[in-house]
Amino acid sequence: MRAFKALLKREYWEHRGSMFYSPLILAGFIALVMLIAGITDSTVTVEGHHAFSFGEGVPMAMDEFEKMDAETQERVVQVGLTAPVILFSLILLVVCLFYALGCLYDERRDRSILFWKSMPLSDTTTVLSKFVTLVLVIPALYGAVIIAFQLYTMLYATVAAWFGGNSGVTIWAASGLIGVFVNTLLSLIVASLWLAPVWGWLMLASCWAKRTAFLWAIFPLLLVFIAEGWIFNSSRFASLIGERIATGFAIQNSEIGEALPARMSDGEVFNWINAIGNTEFWSGLLLTAAFLGGAIYLRRYRDDS
Amino acid sequence: MSAIIQARDLKKSYGSFHALKGVNFSVERGRIVGLVGPNGAGKTTVLKAILGLTSFDGDLEVLGLNPETQRHQLMQKVCFIADVAIMPSWLRVNEALEFITEVHPHFNLARAEQFLEKTSIVRDAKIKSLSKGMVTQLHLALVMSIDAELLVLDEPTLGLDILYRKEFYNELLTEFFDEGRSILVTTHQIEEVENLLTDLLFIKQGEIILSSTIEQVNEKYVEVLVGKEKLPQAKALSPLAERSAFGRSICLFENKSREQLAELGELYSPSVADLFVAKMKEGQ
């Protein structure tokens, strides 16, 4: 267990830029823009349709907000809190993609693999630590930064409310903040688990490739696309993968889907609870286990050092 | 004495190329063994098999374990520095210390810190900012702080300048080596290690052609400085090798009585390098 924690730390040390500083910088940037906009009394567009300038808009918006029924108030606040997740989740997906492609390839490319292999660690432990990094550590770090940003948004809205002559209590009451935090975190983690077959495949390619891991990941898929199109004149394999990734993105952002009025979201929301209850989630994990097994075998027995 | 490494009929092929053709040898506890051979002779394959980094046929036991199936248990007792074992460039010195402390049950952090204090390596420096010599110092400090029973070195001083090379082996002898441990080393710089070694293993085209202690070598092999007039007489005794120096010939003999050879000229113990060259050319 101690060794496993050390391996997770090792992954963090190598990738702290993309795992932690990237979302932090994004959050800091948006926070700063919001702050400047607030202080300089510029026009800010919140939630895409509530445009207001601070001097005049805030009192008006607060009056409007107070007149809404409780359910609408909740929706408005929660949309405000969960909308930024889209930005973070896009970066998160790209970061995970590159991490999965590099995690078993870079150590061979920079020839440090023999250093790691001189440690009393099994290949199974090592490969699993990289997988846990993908499905737990990276989403949790992004989740933590998003939660901090959500807290900042609440404080920001409260101060803005004070300028409008309102205490801001209704905003906090409508936020369901703890629920938003928990759902934000779990949505990101479950989405990453939903995408586990993608990560598993990329890790296998990462372990297999002698060079350009990206091509090794894409090429077999392309062959299947082409073969399927040629033999069956269909593209079900491609849409299967496309849907899997799209659904992963949808799980990450299920919170805003739930907060938006039904007419604005396209009906069905697929959240992390739905995902866990879905057989595709579990069959995906099974497939992932096969990919990881392949990666462990390759790392253990391949002799190309 | 107990064998730390026991290899019986060790074989390895890469396609149709037989890298190891049924190799037998053993390494005892408390020895410093030099595995010497030309490029492509199978040195690295032997080391990789010992370290569980490659598959093989035949029997191989290292510290009572099978390197192929019990690799990570083995790594608790075995350390290695390979010429290609480059430390990860993004890692910081203090991170490396923390990592090994947590994953290695036999790592002594205080000892590693002592070693590092003697160098100019800064703790929060990234490895990529260190010179090649410093990285080797760091790696050696880490390895010497692991209470290992076997240390395997594959061209450990490759690319280092002479100052670091001398220091490397000095440290190893004074700080690491004792009767409970063994060191197996391969290097092209035989002169550098020849005073260190207690045992020699020569490997040529996948076969061990010499396996003996230095004492045995000194008994068995003798160099004679032969004057011109006695050269035909020396040649009649079929020397293993002959080379000329300062107008006289130096003949290397295997298994000849010293009294007989003393009549030809002055006797010397051959250097490992000369013996190596002679053995490699033998039968060609």
Structure, explained:
The complex is a heterodimer of chains A (305) and B (284). With 305 residues, chain A is mainly α. Helix content of chain A is 79%, strand content 3%. Chain A has a two-stranded antiparallel ribbon. In chain A, a hairpin with a 3-residue loop joins strand 1 (43-46) and strand 2 (50-53). Chain A contains 15 helices and 2 strands. The model of chain A has no long low-confidence stretch (mean pLDDT 88). In chain A, helix 3 packs across helix 8 (169-175). Chain B has 284 residues and is of the alpha/beta class. Chain B has 2 domains: 3-205, P-loop containing nucleotide triphosphate hydrolases (Rossmann fold); 216-281. In chain B, 32% of the residues lie in helices and 30% in strands. Chain B is built from 11 helices and 13 strands. Chain B has helices spanning 43-50, 71-74, 93-103, 109-117, 132-144, 162-176, 190-193, 214-220, 231-236, 258-262, 272-281; strands at residues 3-14, 17-28, 32-36, 57-62, 78-82, 150-154, 182-186, 199-204, 207-213, 221-226, 241-245, 248-254, 265-268. Chain B has a 6-stranded mixed beta sheet with strand order 5-6-7-3-8-9, sandwiched between helices. In chain B, strands 11-12-10-13 form a 4-stranded antiparallel beta sheet. The radius of gyration of chain B is 21 Å and the shape is globular. The mean pLDDT of chain B is 88. The A-B interface holds A 2-3, 5-7, 9-10, 13-14, 107, 110-112, 114-122, 300-301, 303, 305 and B 48, 51, 53-55, 71-76, 79-82, 84-92, 95, 98-100, 102-105, 139.
SSE blueprint and pairings:
The complex is a heterodimer of chains A (305) and B (284).
Chain A: H1 2-39, E1 43-46, E2 50-53, H2 54-67, H3 70-82, H4 85-102, H5 106-109, H6 113-117, H7 123-163, H8 169-175, H9 177-194, H10 196-208, H11 213-231, H12 236-252, H13 254-259, H14 272-276, H15 279-301
Antiparallel strand pairs in A: 1-2
Chain B: E1 3-14, E2 17-28, E3 32-36, H1 43-50, E4 57-62, H2 71-74, E5 78-82, H3 93-103, H4 109-117, H5 132-144, E6 150-154, H6 162-176, E7 182-186, H7 190-193, E8 199-204, E9 207-213, H8 214-220, E10 221-226, H9 231-236, E11 241-245, E12 248-254, H10 258-262, E13 265-268, H11 272-281
